[in-house]
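INTERNAL TRANSFER SHEET
From: sequence group
To: structure group
Subject: glycine dehydrogenase (aminomethyl-transferring)

Please process the attached sequence and return the structure record in the designated field. Keep the field labels unchanged so the import script can parse them.
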Amino acid sequence: MPMNDQGRPSRPTSAAAETAAPRGTFTGNRALDLEEALIFEIGRPDTSGVDLPAPSAAKARLGSLARKAPLGLPGLSEPEAVRHYVRLSRRNYSIDAGLYPLGSCTMKHNPRLNEKMARLAGFSDVHPLQPTSTVPGALELIGEVGRWLTELTGMAAVAMSPKAGAHGELAGMMAIKAALKARGLDKPVVLVPESAHGTNPATAAAIGFEVRAVPARADGTVGAADVRAAIDERVGAIMLTNPNTCGIFEPEVAEIAAAIHEAGGYFYCDGANFNAIVGKVRPGDFGVDAMHINLHKTFSTPHGGGGPGAGPVVLSERLAAFAPLPFVRVTDGEAVLVENPEDTADGETPYGRLTAFHGQMGMFTRAYAYMLSHGADGLRQASEDAVLSANYLRACLSDVMTLPFPDHPSMHEVLFDDRFLDGTGVTTLDFAKAMIDEGYHPMTMYFPLVVHGAMLIEPTESESKAALDLFAATLRDLVFAATGGDSERFTGAPRFAPRRRLDETRAARSPKLRWDKPAAAE
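Return from structure group:
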């Protein structure tokens, strides 16, 4: 019998005890898996966990905006509040907990060195309203990040103020709209491939463009001939993702750029997947006029939670003059913040102010730390390793899972479809839920929409071969279980998560966003 170092048995002494179902507990807890009521049920709105002196009388200044009812927050002591949020954090999957294969969103490791740099005094405590004369170092850092981005993309200018990728996308398309207007052209149509990110048509429509779809070819790419066929005198731009959302580098991207330029339009590139090509190819060299960059995807700043974010947009010579305010201009090594139209130089014709303040300083600092710690060769290797990881998983799984586009090598992510599940009774969603039981966040499911039952996996460059091998072995085991008739393993999953499978459609359509005190029992 195995013994631990205290000399006690380290497993039950009988087979019966080993196979017995675990008994319930009085608390509902299961060791470190702690059950907890809602925070409103733990605390009471009519109490406080902190002793505060009564406020002195003060003249009301809020008028009709004054609160008319109590705040209604539960009163908790500090230990209760800390325990509540720690327990919640343990229920959330994260890149710090394990491999995060979410395709298209690039859940890569955020080096702790970057976090340390972002907390340096002078960066972490910059206030947006303090005089710019007091923050020359912050402006210089913003200028340096912008210099790296223009060099890596082969572009002429950069707007650092957008707060997220979609915001940068908006900035780039507004620059295109301003450029068309400055040339006196009425070109209200934007071409958008069917495989594009959903934000692409939404952004174009939001600023008054008419969206015209371009079909994807059978191999998942966009053909230059199809683009030319869709172009007429009303087309002013195309929005194309490269590498595209199927994880494929567009082979005819230069020809597509040439076609749109010949028609007098502009080429907007969705830079969401720039992390696959950094140091390998510069988008400006194949004809891109504007491209946003997700700092969280390519340069390891934190991702998710609605912020804080940063989505700089780089602009070609054709659009550089239209960069929005505010922006940083570097002259003779000195960084200056240009905030007002009267501060612009000859040739600078910004289309207006995109945002109240310049950007998210913490994101710029983290991205710059990542750039400096890697250097040019390290950034290139990160791209190469991301592509290698995706193609390694492709090689490990393509004999048991089905590839919708087998004729193109994968870039930073590999796309499978659900044909291998045909006849098993197991759906794509069932497969994803079973991954949760195995301790993995599911890959992106059902996207891109051009592939039925899509399963998009992006391992990133952060994972070791051992981590990829275990992940691949897990998926293979799930495939064998599904094709071997063990459908119960999937339809009942997840079994081991804090909560079982939810009615996600109902939760999305009828969310409960407010806690109401239950009626007293009769």
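Handover comment: DSSP finds 15 helices and twelve strands in the chain. The CA atoms of residues 382 and 461 lie 6 Å apart.
Transfer complete.
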